[in-house]
Structure formats: C-alpha cells, structure tokens
Design a protein that fits this description.
302 residues; alpha/beta; five-stranded mixed beta sheet; 16 helices; 45% helix; globular; binds 1,3-dihydroxyacetonephosphate; binds iron/sulfur cluster
Amino acid sequence: MILNIQKQILALKKEKDAVILAHSYQSPEILEIADEVGDSFALSTVAKKYPQKTVILCGVKFMAETVKILSPEKKVILPVEIATCPMAEQITPQEVLKFKEKNPIFKVVAYVNTTANLKAVCDVCVTSSSALQIVSKIKEPILFVPDKNLGSYIKSQLPGKDIILMNGCCPVHDSVTEQDVKNIKERYPDMKIAMHPELPPQVLQYADYIGSTTGIDDYVSKVKEDVVIGTEKSIADHLNMRYPSRNFPLLSKSLMCPDMRVTSLMDVYKALIGKGGLEIEIDEETRLKAKVPIDAMIELGK
Ligand code: 13P
Ligand code: SF4
C-alpha cells in the first residue's frame, strides 16, 4: 500500500516538475521519497540548486516560507496547511519594532523558526546549527528572538556578549524536565546524552553533546555507541533504523512534535495533484525585507 503510493509520488514528481524537500523530523516513508533531507538550515538554501519549478516542503510553514523568500520564482507548497511551528508565532513584529525604537544600537537576531512578517523586522537569522558562529561575529548588543532556551545556550557559550532574550520557546523541547534526565540516567547510567539547544538550560547542563538535528546525527555516527536522544522522537527512530544493533532511547516521551508529525504520504500525493496543501504566498515588500536577515545568515554562516 505505502509502496504503491510512493511509486505514484515518484512518477508525479517527474510529471509535475516538482522536487520534494523534507525536514529530518519527517516520517521514514516521506524521507524515502524526498530529494533532500536536512535540518532547517540545509533546507532553507538547497531549493535553489534544483531546476524544478515546484517545491513540496515536508516540514512546517516557516520552512516553506524561507524557501519562497529565497526562490520566489518557484511554486512552494506545504502539504498540510495546519503544519505550523507554535514558536514561530510567539513574538509579534510590533514587539520587535517597539524594542528597536527604544534600543536603536541593538541588532535583532531571529531564530529561523519565525514568520516571514517577523523576519522582515529583524537584522540576522540563525538556525540551531549556525547560531553560535553567527552571533559570535556580531559586534553590537543583541536582542535574540524568540527562543529563550537557544538564546540562553548561546549566552552561556559566548559569555562576553550582551544578549537580551524574549520569552519564546519550543513547547515540545521545553517540556523536558530535569527529572526526565535523572530517570534516563538511572536506567542508562553510562550512556551519553545528545541534546538539541531548544531544551531548557536545567536539562542541557547534563548533555554530552549539544547541537542541531544534523549535529546530533553526526555525533552519533562518530561515537559509535548507544546514545540517549534529546530531540524530536523521529531522530531516535531514524537512528534506530540506521544502526539496528545500537540503542537510541528517547530522553522524554514528550519529545513528539504534532506539527512535524501531521504530514502523511497521502498529503504529499494530494499536494502534487493540486488537491491539497497550502501554496505559500508572500507579498513582495515583505519578501524583500525578510530576505535581508536570511541573506545575512547565509553570509555570516560561511
Ligand atoms: P533544526 O532543524 O535546526 O535542528 O531545528 C529543529 C526544529 O525544531 C525544527 O523546527
Ligand atoms: Fe516548532 Fe518545536 Fe515543532 Fe520544531 S519541534 S517545529 S521548534 S514546535
């Protein structure tokens, strides 16, 4: 059944001149039909290298928006309209504009998990894989939005920097508690723990490795042993499949993102036949303003 749908999707991709990009949190059956799989940084830039006119972005809305901002000539479709990241909506452009008015010397650094409208009033974007490198290059004081957890991790790594945080967070990663770490350590006392920097500081203090989804993947392939996974469950699932003789227990059962899990193969199929999904549209003025911090991210991330 699944194989049959996958075959039809692969044929439709050619027929409709479409490329499929998938965030690494997507299900294995979606990763199998994707042309590219990656973290949010990789997905933001990769669409440009494909000649296809349509991009099907399997992930959440801000990722599809980022592709559209950088590749306006392409038709960008999010297969499930309601696949949004709650963190992306937590801070409004008005709040940032108010801050900038009172604090003109500050640079506003936005996690890429933000709406196009918010990016349009920010100076530089970062992803979890590029945040440290980019922030370390900024001389001015910084307002970091929206993720207080990623922001406080950056602060802890760059102690000389003047960084103000806002009160946003990823509800999925933020739900992990210190007790979850104690429980897993009791069960697997010698196992290393890899964590995503969206986890709260009281949890991150126990990490053996902290990095983006791609970073965690690379770490696991290097250490060649069992590792507790402190990010969305899909990453543990993919690793368990890739290395069946190793074990990748999940740090907490709350690490499941409903928005990342909502997209199915049938949604991708329907998006390809024009019977579902959301075509991303961004007015040109907003797109050009939102492109400024994304271009700065690509430049400073080199
Ligand atoms: P990365 O893809 O940057 O690791 O981010 C994880 C995430 O939560 C995506 O929404
Ligand atoms: Fe947003 Fe968190 Fe889900 Fe990522 S895991 S899409 S940051 S809610």
